[in-house]
Amino acid sequence: MNQVVEKGDKMFYRISELAEMFDVNESLLRYWEKEFPQISPKTNNRGVRLYRKEDIEVIGLIYHLVKERGMTLQGARQKLKENKEDTARNYEVVRRLQGVKEQLIALSKELEG
After folding, report:
1. What is the rounded CA–CA span in Å between residue 105 and residue 64?
2. How distant is the alpha carbon of residue 45 from its chain centre?
3. In the chain, what are the domains?
């Protein structure tokens, strides 16, 4: 995942923005919408999907479970249903650790060069 939605960002995001954020196809996001009832974007009068931060958080969890941890959709669905809070906490810890890792790599390269 290239970007993370931070506080102070926009209220709504288009599907193309999410596809870029998570480096996935728009069709995958539409498929996940069908498979996970927790994702419920609004649509404007032209039928354009508008995702809220809550939707993006759920998509982030699904991405983590399916793409990063290799779970099946059924497994991810079960995990979110049974203990979403634990899954969200674990995802946040992993995300922060990845950020720390990137900083350490950058610092190491700086010290070498």
Report:
1. 22
2. 26
3. 13-112 (1.10.1660.10)
Helix axes 26-35, 53-63, angle to 10 degrees: 90
The identity of residue 107, as a single letter, is L
pTM of the model: 0.71
Residue with tokens 């010290």: 111
Q: 3-state class of 102 per DSSP?
A: helix
**Structural contact between residues 77 and 84, judged by C-beta atoms closer than 8 angstroms:** no
Name, in order, each residue with C-beta under 8 angstroms of 94's C-beta and a sequence gap of 6 or more: 64, 68
Which pLDDT value is given to residue 89? 76
Determine the Cα–Cα distance for residues 21 and 67; give it in Å rounded to an integer. 14
Burial class for 25, CB neighbours closer than 10 Å (0-12, 13-18, 19+): exposed
